[in-house]
Amino acid sequence: MQFSSGEKRRLKLIALAALNATPLGGVVVLGWSLSALLVVYWVELGACLGFAALEGLFAEKRPGYDADGFSWLVVGALS
Fold this sequence. Notes:
The longest helix has 24 residues, at 5-28. By secondary structure, the chain is mainly alpha-helical. It is built from three helices and no strands. The chain starts with a helix and ends with a helix. It is 72% helix and 0% strand. It has one domain (5-78).
């Protein structure tokens, strides 16, 4: 089944709205406390960071920008 670009965009929008409405539904319908909601967001953040770390480990291309001085900038900002 082939979808047009407009249909794909609409499906992505519906999926995004449903995913963002899930925590609200948990609070309203299931009676989650705000601390439970915070835990859900922390778990989501941890999963996203873990996935990004795995992607970074297996990345094959070098960065496209000139990294000279960039590490100094980051280290200097954090010190």
